[in-house]
Amino acid sequence: MAAQPNLLRLSPTFRQLWLARTFSNVGDGIAFVALVLLVHNRDMTGLAVGSLLLVQAIPRFFGPVAGTVADRVEQRALMIGCDLTNAALFGAIAFWTPSLPILLVLAGASSCVDTLFSPAGRSALPALVPRDDLLQANAWLATSFNLQLALGPMIGGAIVLALGPGGALAANTATFVLSAVLLSRLPPLRSVDENLRGFIATGTEGLRYAWRTPVVRVVILALFFAVTFAAMDNVALVFLVQDTLGGGPLAFGLLSAAYGVGMVAASAGLSVRALRISAGMIFLLGWFFSGVGILLAGIAPVLIVVGIGQVIAGWGNGAENVGVETLIQRIVPRPLLGRTFGVAATAAFGGSTLAYAVSGFLLDVTSPRAVFVIGGSGVLAVTLFLAVFVRQRLTEETAAA
Fold it and tell me: I need a surface site. Which of 62, 115, 140, 148 has the fewest CB within 10 A?
């Protein structure tokens, strides 16, 4: 393992994309804190906060539709349009402070725009960097996203304290405008198939491709099942920390942050170190360490061991994210990338949604430790299946693409 050339320094176009995503991602973290605090402080009900999170979550199920749009249009213009639309939506919330029903509509619309942006941004990357640099590029972009988890809420809380929720939402508006300016400096990013087809036919073709291509099908199914098990600890963590091990709110906050620290460590490490293993192997190793970390946290006798497990699990998740995005970009033809990423994102989100529904029931009938053990064991079982039955196919497909 050796240091590799810094892609941010060597590629001006990739640097523009990375800076745009970093500003926007940190802004999203700021906005999340500001919106939750705005709704909580004004409406003072769990139903109001839950409704906010729900309207932000539902659009994520429409990833295949967003991927179809991304494969049919010029992607730079689409991304700029999404950023400017989000700037207008958050600007309206910041300066208007609408009633809860209207705020929910605006927040839901912003989530729709984010869902539309995601496959466009991911599928555009192979047009900006050479194939051999995709792993490092994805690691840099993953670090950018992970900063949303590590820095965004902290900055958002500080701005809310100083300027109120409106000031934090105005700051997020500015990040979208800055992102749009940076993206405007990219070259045109058109990947569409010139054979004209209807929208439904284009979307159906993407779904058919994902299902009929063995390695893509395996990756998408693995995402669904592995995320289903991995996300169980999101619900159980607060119970494990406070009820089982006697920790307080500060302990819960620090242990939650430990997961993000692990994610940042993984993506940052992959961005500066050259590994002589395939993207498919990184995908497998990421899930392995994620399962080990969840399992360790579940059986931990003290809080410090929970923290170690959280860091390991976060590292695994960060590595898995980089591996799967690079794997898809190297396997899937560029005209189909948007639709494939849309299906993959929906599979992962569907898995997390199922986890949230199931883990609450499991908590009531078992214990926080049991939920962690089930989740970690499930992730390791999925990883074992992939390693035994499809590891060679994953690595061969990556090398041959």
Answer: 62
Residues 6+ apart with CB under 8 A from 117: 78, 79, 82, 83
Contact 61, 350 (CB under 8 A): yes
* CATH number, domain 199-401: 1.20.1250.20
Instruction: Report residue 349: phi and psi, to 5°.
Output: -70, -40
Cα 76 from Cα 313, distance rounded (Å):
34
Cα-to-chain-centroid distance, residue 62? 15
**Minimal CA–CA distance to 195: which of 74, 75, 71?**
71
CATH topology of domain 10-131+149-187: Growth Hormone; Chain: A; (1.20.1250)
Q: Residue 79: which pLDDT band, with cuts at 50, 70 and 90?
A: very high
Q: What DSSP assignment string belongs to 73-90?
A: SBHHHHHHHHHHHHHHHH
Vertex 115, ends 113 and 116: CA angle to 5°?
65
**273 beta partners:** 3
pLDDT computed for residue 271 by the predictor: 82
Query: What is the rounded distance in angstroms from the CA atom of residue 203 to the CA atom of residue 24?
Result: 28
- Portions of the chain given CATH number 1.20.1250.20: 10-131+149-187, 199-401
Give, in order, the Cα–Cα distances in Å from 61 to each of 28, 79, 145, 343.
Answer: 19, 19, 20, 9
Query: What is the percentage of the chain residues whose pLDDT exceeds 70?
Result: 91
User: Looking at residue 124, what is its pLDDT?
Assistant: 87
In this structure, the number of other CB atoms found within 10 A of the CB of residue 399 comes to: 11
Closest CA to 107 of 172, 21, 162: 172
Q: What is the CA radius of gyration of the chain?
A: 21
Q: Which of 353, 348, 378, 374 is nearest to 363 (CA)?
A: 374
Whole-angstrom distance, CA of residue 41 vs CA of residue 163: 15
3-state secondary structure (DSSP) of residue 196: coil
Q: Where are the beta strands (DSSP E) in 212-328?
A: 273-274
Residue 217, amino acid? R
